[in-house]
Amino acid sequence: MSWTHERARIASLSRSRTPDDPELVDARRNLRAERLADYITKTVDAAPPLTPAQRDRLAAAQGAVTRDDTETPRGQRGESRIPSGRPI
Hints:
Mean pLDDT: 77
Number of helices: 3
Oligomer: single chain
């Protein structure tokens, strides 16, 4: 799903829902996540390959996400992946 789809969904939901409606809140959260994923993908694709030390430092700085999409506490190492599944 693209972030533009989520933007349209928010526009549709906001016509008839209150700002604290759970479905509208979820749609806004999804929009932020989709836009972030798009930004990360574009940034990683434009960057030169990272060294293992650089990947570890970046993963630790953002709170690593493991393969099963569960967060690991900051400072612990995990294999970080961008939404496309490509390792960073």
